[in-house]
Design goal:
Isoleucyl-tRNA Synthetase, Domain 1, 28 strands, alpha+beta, 22 helices, Methionyl-trna Synthetase, domain 2
Length: 681
Amino acid sequence: MSKRYYLTTPIYYVNDIPHIGTSYTTVAADILARFHRMRGEEVLFATGTDENAPKVAQAATARGLEPLPFVDGMAERFQQAWAQLNVEYDVFIRTTEPRHARAVQAFFATLQERGDIYQGPYEGWYCMSCETFFTEEEAPEQNGERRCPNEPLHAPLKLVRETNYFFALSRYGDRLREHIEAHPEFLQPEFRRNEVLQFIQQGLRDVCITRGAAGWGVSAPGDPSQVVYVWFDALINYLTLVGYPDDAEMLAKWWPADLHLVGKDIYVRFHCTLWPAMLMAAGLPLPKQVLGHGFWMSEGRKMSKTIGNIIEPLRLAEWLAELSGARGEIAVDAVRYFLFREMPFGEDGNFARQSLLQRFNSDLANDLGNALNRSLSLALQNFGGVVPPPTDAETRLRDLGRETHVRLTGLLERVDFQGALAAAWEYVAAINKYLDDRAPWALAKQGKTEELGGVLYHALEAVRLVSLWVYPYMPRAAAEIQRQLGLETRLGEEPWTWQDEPAWGYLEPGAKLEAPSPIFPRIERKTMQEALKNIDQPAAAPSPDASPAAATPAFPPAPAAAVGADPGPADAEDTTITIDDFAKVELRVAEVLSAERVPKADKLLHLRVSLGDEERTVLAGMAEYYEPEALVGRKVIMVANLAPRKMRGLLSQGMLLAAEAGGVVSLLQPDQDLPAGARIR
Ligand code: ME8
């Protein structure tokens, strides 16, 4: 019996279109599903849509539609997007399906029977965007209203007072903590597990799991006046998918799930506290692992419809295809590659188009593309387009390939997507270095045909190995590599497999090779510069291997005295400063409270910022790069001890820092939510 692997993504709210964020989790699951399938495991990869939420009904109303036709259309949109992103899930669930309503009601009834659901009066502050209740302490009143602690831009919280059903979550704190401590692999990564333990430590409150207003959603069993709270409903999808409550055999086959992949936003409260407690209450085993990943930010903020800074991966792939001339499906693969190469899975990252283009050129066109093109072209020129005969003398890439394969397997088992790609690219670099060192073009000139054949066979076989490693990330590109290696016909016979030790010598000497044609055509420098100039949103942090963008003051230009170091005319050559010089600059986190254009000044924005204990006015030359509204609420970095300067009748009391490269200007900001006024050192 083959090993089984059941993995899930969150089911997404259909009030939003699929974007980089939701695509990130879904593609992550696709990568893992492909990896496990390659290892011969029976995989169940599930995703779906969360359709019973009040905000979904609200979104339908806003479009003048009944909820059902609206969610039908949106669910289709998600399915299409995943297909276009080369995602191959096994099952898709929609929470409006009758099988799911049955599962929710059965689950609810079980908990009622077991005494963990009771009725009582409820009063709480509800954020519709998050579909979450907050206490008065979590959302203190400010200016006569309460705002969502997760995102102040969400609509003000609404007070809900009614008699509802409650789930006795408070009974499960100790058992949850014991389970988490006894199973270190259960909650990953470790730092997020600690957040969960802290959350439980504070004491868990019972959760209100129904709403009194009968309407959109699943009604409580035996009480049609109550609709089940969307989170209680949504989490149960993981059981509906595997046959709960009707198909005991299927449930026994697939439950518990091996992995729930989720973003950090729904990790602590929902997937690591509420859900495991619900399962304990129902007497069901807990999932083997819940993994919480970080967030892609856009313009330094979480991507969301409320903020209006959504990036759509398919639009991005179209843009990349247009700039490079790559086939559409290959550009999609390149975007998939980028998402997992650029940002460590557990952490947050700021999305930057510039980094995407740079990685496309350097990693895909140059490194991988070159390794394939050079080996293929030389084989074509010197061996009439067939696989040359190997020799026993060449072992370097074989040995390194085996070592890398074992390392990579371990990394993917630990869901280190970035680490696995880095390992693969170290090997790609080794292939290119091998070709440089062994200089097959020189061997050809010298007529050393046997040696030449050995070198080329070795390089081609190494590229084939890479195609297997990148297949989970870039399935179409990997297939194209294999096609050019002449393996297309053998694909059907020998599926993509991931053995414990990779076969070496798979390419058959004498088998036909295809003519090389660039899979990732290089983007011209000029095209890249033009494209970056024209983008409508500022690209942000450059990738680690890109040349660092210079930190430039946004405005006003720093008078020498303000940066502490007086360069002095004679010292023009020596631009170094001492640590004491640098210490004179007081850099602090500032929160933008308001922003507006300065009349008759095209470039200037008039900002009010908070430094925690005081407010300042800043005039920043950012009007060409940012809409004023997009800045409000942002935390930026400010030089706080700059001599004030009067401009346009206003006194500017500081300077914001921004990075600039290729005509793109991006404000610097801390990658954690720090309080306004925090010092930078
Ligand atoms: O929360 N970066 O659905 P949702 C990375 N329906 N991942 C992101 C992201 C970003 N900027 N934005 C979203 C819900 N995500 C519930 C889930 S599950 C039983 C119910 C991803 O549409 C990430 O996985 O708001 C996050 O957890 C999920 O989308 C939230 O999707």
